[in-house]
Write a structure and sequence with these properties.
The protein is mainly alpha-helical and 175 residues long. 77% of the residues lie in helices and 0% in strands. The protein has one domain.
């Protein structure tokens, strides 16, 4: 064999290996993207649970006739699991901060009322909300780690063109 033939053979083998790795890279990016969607769904479920628990606490306030500003009584608002699927990340941040403010306000007013603060249902709901909050923080940490991983691999120099071809966009961390 001539040196030119050997060079062409080596270049062909290198190109085939490169494109096989690119194919594997594309599958891995798709897998990472699906993991991100699963993590975001888990966060949405926990957000809906938190909202429902705050609604139940609001119903306790109504039942015990405790005066609370109306914006914190979620018992009069509809459930919103379906709407979480259609909102953007910035709107998620607004929902999260609203739920945190509502929880803080309800607990403030709840602790002011001696009957309610010792009510077993209130104590149970408060404990459940703390558990959901802890799971929420864990899921956000896992999601942010997955986003960091996804963004890193999406910017990998040699295969960035595959990410662009698959229309993968950089994801934002949840604060």
């Amino acid at each position: 064999m001539e040196p030119l033939d050997i060079t062409l053979l080596v270049v062909s083998i290198v190109l085939v290996i490169y494109f096989l790795i690119a194919l594997f890279y594309g599958f891995q990016m798709r897998k990472l993207y699906r993991q991100l969607l699963k993590r975001k769904d888990a966060i949405d479920v926990l957000t809906a649970q938190k909202y429902d628990l705050l609604r139940m606490i609001g119903k306790l306030f109504v039942r015990h006739k405790i005066d609370v500003p109306q914006e914190f009584i979620l018992s009069k608002r509809p459930r919103f699991e379906d709407t979480l699927q259609n909102i953007k990340d910035t709107e998620r941040t607004i929902v999260k901060s609203f739920l945190v403010q509502t929880a803080q306000a309800l607990f403030y007013y709840g602790e002011q009322n001696e009957q309610l603060s010792v009510n077993p249902e209130y104590v149970s709901l408060k404990k459940s909300l703390a558990e959901v909050d802890e799971h929420f923080r864990q899921q956000v940490a896992i999601y942010n780690a997955a986003v960091t991983n996804y963004n890193f691999w999406g910017k990998l120099f040699a295969y960035r063109w595959v990410s662009r071809l698959m229309k993968h966009k950089e994801k934002e961390l949840i604060s």
